[in-house]
Structures are given as structure tokens and as C-alpha cells.
Fold these 2 entries.
Entry 1:
Amino acid sequence: MADKYWFNIETHQVEEGRQSDWTKLMGPYTTREEAAQALEKARRRNQDWDAQDEAQS
């Protein structure tokens, strides 16, 4: 998977190809830019899910 990008949650760096242990990675992503935004994307999804949970309550 050298043609994919990963976000390392420990170092906060984008890796080209899976270089670190999978437990420290988010991905894969098709572009470096997508990988760099991994934490922001996860934060937005969590907010959306929380809002859906509150609406269902």
C-alpha cells in the first residue's frame, strides 16, 4: 500500500505507505491532504453522530 497515505495519531505526521504499527494509524487515504485532515474529519463525524443521538432522545 505504498500508494496510500496514513495519518499517525502519535506523531501527527502523514506517512506515505504504512510505516508505523496499525494501532497508531488512521487511513488509508488517497491523498496526502486527506490524511492531513484525518483528525478534523473524525471530529466532525463525532459531532454529527452526537447530534443524531440527541435528536433521537
Entry 2:
Amino acid sequence: MELETQLNASDRNTRAIIGNNFQKIQEEDAKDDGAFQKFQSDANERMDQLDQEKATHDDVSDLRDELLKKIKHIILGTDEETVKTVIQEMKKEGTI
């Protein structure tokens, strides 16, 4: 952006030059606003995508914790019938 810098207070064109300079500044500002809005939109989309991936990761963590809990229950089970029941239940749920 190139502005007129040769201003003379006694020159009749000074007002027109100042008006043109102001218009150039406004145009440049509008371009900057557009670029910032695109950047902000892209950043928001990326953050939404990361939030969705995090939710998936949280789901996997929850499933892992649940499976570990069931495994501990099997390991601590002393009678064969309890172990069979837990394994059959896990098969029904699709966790094994």
C-alpha cells in the first residue's frame, strides 16, 4: 500500500489526497479483516476436529478401563463357574 506523503496545507488537492489515502487504508483493512476471518474459521474447524478425535480417544480409554476391570474380576475369581459366566458375558457384549 502506497500513500501520498507530499501534503501541503495551502494546496487545494490536500483534501483529495487525504481522502484517497484514507480509502486505501480502508481497503487494506478490509483485506486484513478477510484474511483474519479465514484464519479464525480454519482454526475453529481444526479445534472442532481435534475435539471429535479426543472424544474418540476418551471412548477407547473408557473401554480399556472397563476391560481391565473385567480382567481383574476374572483373575480374582476363585471358582470355575464364575470365570465361565464372566467370559460368556464378555462375549455377549463383544469385548472379547
